[in-house]
Amino acid sequence: MLFIYERLKYNFKFIKDYGFEKPMKLKKRMSPSIIFEKTGAPKEKIQVGYHYETHTFYVNIFTPEPKELFIPQNGKDKENLVIAKEAVNAYLNKR
What we know:
This protein is α+β, with helices and mostly antiparallel strands. It has helices spanning 2-11, 77-94, and strands at residues 24-26, 33-38, 44-51, 56-62, 67-69. Helices cover 29% and strands 28% of the residues. The longest helix has 18 residues, at 77-94. The radius of gyration is 13 Å and the shape is globular. The N and C termini lie far apart (33 Å).
């Protein structure tokens, strides 16, 4: 179970390049996740997680107007990971 946290931290470490702090773990059995937090104004958090039952990644953005990034999934973990990383990167570059 701990391996998934290290994998998430490693694969999404680029989020720190946008001013977000070191991630913290959210322990959930079926959908473990990590949260990157940006301090200052406006406050912002990005939650990245993996759901074991459906084998899908998910991303939630917490801002004054929370949103969930849509990440199309195709059933293969490695490809889903690439898609999730691209979605987060696109969001961060757009804002």
